[in-house]
Amino acid sequence: MAKYLVKRVGFILLSLFFIVTITFFLMQAAPGGPFTSERQLPPEIEQQLNEQYGLDDPLHVQYIDYLKDIAVWDFGPSFKYPAQSVNDIINRSVPYSLILGAEAIFIALSIGVLLGVVAALKHNKFGDYTAMVVAVLGISVPNFIMAALLQYVFAMQMDALPVARFDSFAHTLLPAVALATTPLAFIARLMRSSMLEVLSSDYIKTAKSKGLSHRVVTYKHALRNAIMPVISYLGPLVVAILTGSFVIEKIFAIPGLGNEFVESITNRDYTVIMGTTVFFSVLLLISILIVDLIYGLIDPRIKVAGKGGGK
Amino acid sequence: MKKVLEVDNLSVSFDTFGGEVKAVRDVSFELSKQETLAIVGESGSGKSVTAQSLMRLIEMPPGKFVDGSIKFDGEDLVLKSDKQMEDIRGKEISMIFQDPMTSLNPTMTVGRQISESLIKHQGMTKKEAHNRGIELLKLVGIPNPEARINQYPHQYSGGMRQRGMIAIALACNPKMLIADEPTTALDVTIQAQILDLMRNLKEQTGAAIILITHDLGVVANAADRVAVMYGGKIVETGSADEIFYNARHPYTWGLLGSMPKLEDDNVDLHAIPGSPPDLLDPPKGCPFAARCPYAMKVCEDHMPEYTELSSTQKTACWLLDERAPKVEPPESAIAGGSIVNE
C-alpha cells in the first residue's frame, strides 16, 4: 500500500511538472503582458517594471526561477495587485470555493443517487418518469440560468434566502444547488442505468433465491455494485465543479478561486494564472487518487496495492 | 414414498407488448423425497420458467400464474404472499444457477453470502454462521475453507464458484434443490465433479433435486426420472431408463438422435429440423407437429392426451392411439442408450 502511494505521488509530481511547463510557455506565447493596457506606459516605467519582476530575463531563466519558487510552494507576487502575493490570494479565496464545491458535490451525490435508485426500482412507472424528467431538465438547463431562476424564485419572490454573497450557511444554499443541478442529473441517469443492469443480474436472483427481503437485496447486494460508475465519475466531477464554479461565483458575488482564475487570465497576471492553475491541478490529481482508493475499497476485484488476491 | 412437490396443471404467462407469451402450459409433475427429476428441453421450451415459478422468482408483472397449483409439502406456493415466500426460499427450497461466474455477488465475500441465509433462516449469530460456512465449504470440497471463506468470488475458479453456489444453496438443509443448468457453463471434467458432488450431497442431506438441463449426458448421469418439455408442455415423462431405452415421443427421439456418439465417425451433428413454436400464439394441437416427421392431420388441431405406458411413463402423442399407424423409433434414437453405459 505504502509503495503504491509513493508511486502515485511520484506520478502526481511528474504530471505537475508537465502542467507547469506547458502552462508557462503557453501563457508566454499569448500576446500582451501584465503591463499592457490601453493607456501606454512610458517606456522607462515599463522597463523598470519588467526589471523588477524579472520579465526582462531570457525565458528559460524566468522558467527556471519559477520552478525553484514553486518547489517551495511560493507562487510569487501578483502583478496586478502588487501588495498581495499569489499565496495570499489563494489562501483567501480557496475556503469559499471549497465550501461551495463540497456542498454541491454532497447535494449532487446524495440526491442524484437517490433519484437514480428510485427510478430503477420504479422502472417504467410514475416514479421513474418523474425522476428522469427532473434529470433531463437538470442536464439541459445551464447552471447560470438555474442560478438566475433560483435567485428570482427563492430570493426575490419568496424572500426566503439571500440573493448573493457568502456570509452564512443560508447564503451557500442557492449557489450550491445551482452548481449541483447538472452533475446531480447526470449522476441520477448514471445510477438508474447501472442499477437496472445490476438488478437484472444473476447474483441478484441468487440473493432473492436465498429468501432475503426486497430491502436487503436492494441495499446490500445491488447498491454497492451499482454505485461503481458514479464513483468513477467523481474524479471528473470534482474538477468540473471546482473549475466550473466561476460562473456561479460571479453571479452570486462569491470571492472564490474560480473568480480569481478567470480574472487573472484577462489581466495577463502571469503569477496568478500559474498559481491558480497549479493549485487546481494539485486538487484534481489528489481527488483522482482518492477516487481510485475508494474504488479499490468498494470493489475487491480492483486491487489498489499489490496485496492479497487471486492466489 | 412421500411427495415433496406436486405441480398440477401449472400455466405461466408473460404479458408483453406483442401479447401474452404462454411460456408454461398445463404442466404437471411430482417429486418424491430424495428423488432427482430432470426437466429436459431446448431453449424456449419453458423449463427455466417452470423452475423459477417453483421459487416464485418470476417478476410479476409481466409474469403471471394463469392456472394450476404448486403444492410443496402440501401447501400451495401459488397462494403464498411474498413475505411468506421469503421464509421458504433458501430454507425449504433453494436454487443453483447456470453461470457461476455471474451468480455470486462480486463485492461480497463468499462467507458472507453463505452466512446471509443462515442468519436469516436459522437465527444464527455471525460467528456461528461463519463456522457453519467453513463446514459447508468443506462439505462441497473446497480446499482450505478457513481461508477461502474470507475470499471474494473473483478469487475462486469457475468450478469452485459453482461449489460455493452449492454451499449457499445447501446452507439451510433445504428439502428441495432446483439446479438450473448447473453444469452448462463448466468444462467437462468440472461438470463430472459437480454432478458427483450433487449426487453425494443428495444422499447425505436427503434433498430432492430438480435438474434443469438440455444435456442428456447430464441426465443419464444424475437423474432418476425425466420430464421432456417442448413448447411449454411436458410431452413425455418417465424413469431415466424408460426415456433412454423406450422413448415413445418423436421429440424425445429427436433429442436422443441429436446426441453426438462416441463410436460415430460422422462429425456432423444431427439436428431436429425447424424451430420451436412461437409461444405468443402456440399451436392448438401438439406443439411438435410442425417439426415432427410422423405428424398426422389430427396432430395439428388436437393436443393428444397422455398415454400411460407404465406406472411411471406417460407420453402425449397421437402415434400411441390405437388408430394410428405403427411407427418404430429411428436407429439414432435407440443408440441413445449407449451414453448410459458410458
Describe this structure as you would to a colleague.
The complex is a heterodimer of chains A (311) and B (342). By secondary structure, chain A is mostly helical. Chain A has a domain at 92-298: MetI-like (MetI-like fold). In chain A, 75% of the residues lie in helices and 0% in strands. Chain A is built from 12 helices and no strands. Chain A is flat, with a radius of gyration of 24 Å. With 342 residues, chain B is α/β, with parallel strands linked by helices. Chain B folds into 2 domains: 3-223, P-loop containing nucleotide triphosphate hydrolases (Rossmann fold, 3-Layer(aba) Sandwich); 230-341, no CATH class. In chain B, helix 3 packs parallel to helix 6, helix 4 crosses helix 6 (158-170) and helix 6 (158-170) runs parallel beside helix 7. The two termini of chain B are 30 Å apart. The interface between A and B is medium-sized, with 25 and 33 residues.
Secondary-structure map with pairings?
The complex is a heterodimer of chains A (311) and B (342).
Chain A: H1 2-29, H2 43-52, H3 59-71, H4 86-121, H5 126-140, H6 143-157, H7 169-199, H8 202-209, H9 214-226, H10 228-251, H11 257-266, H12 270-298
Chain B: E1 3-16, E2 19-32, E3 36-40, H1 47-54, E4 63-72, E5 75-76, H2 82-88, E6 93-96, H3 110-122, H4 126-139, H5 145-148, H6 158-170, E7 176-180, H7 188-205, E8 208-213, H8 216-222, E9 225-230, E10 233-239, H9 240-245, H10 250-257, H11 297-301, E11 306-308, E12 314-316, H12 331-334
Parallel strand pairs in B: 3-8, 3-9, 6-7, 7-8
Antiparallel strand pairs in B: 1-2, 1-4, 4-5, 9-10, 10-12, 11-12
Helix pairs in contact in B: 3-4, 3-6, 4-6, 6-7
Class from secondary-structure proportions of chain A: mainly alpha
Classified by CATH, the class of the largest domain in chain B is Alpha Beta
Number of helical regions of chain B: 12
- The percent range for helix content of chain B is 25-40%
Beta-strand level of the residues of chain A, as a percent range?
A: under 5%
Mean pLDDT of chain A: 85
From the spread of the alpha carbons, the general shape of chain A counts as flat
Number of domains of chain B: 2
- Largest Cβ-defined interface: A-B, 25 and 33 residues
The CATH C-level name of one domain in chain A is Mainly Alpha
CATH topology of the largest domain in chain B: Rossmann fold
Low-confidence stretches of chain B: none
Structural class of chain B: alpha/beta
CATH 2nd-level architecture of the largest domain in chain B: 3-Layer(aba) Sandwich
User: Total strand count of chain B, please?
Assistant: 12
Organism (chain A): Lentibacillus salicampi
Pfam family, one (chain A): BPD_transp_1
Keywords (chain A): Cell membrane, Membrane, Transmembrane, Transmembrane helix, Transport
Membrane topology (chain A): Multi-pass membrane protein
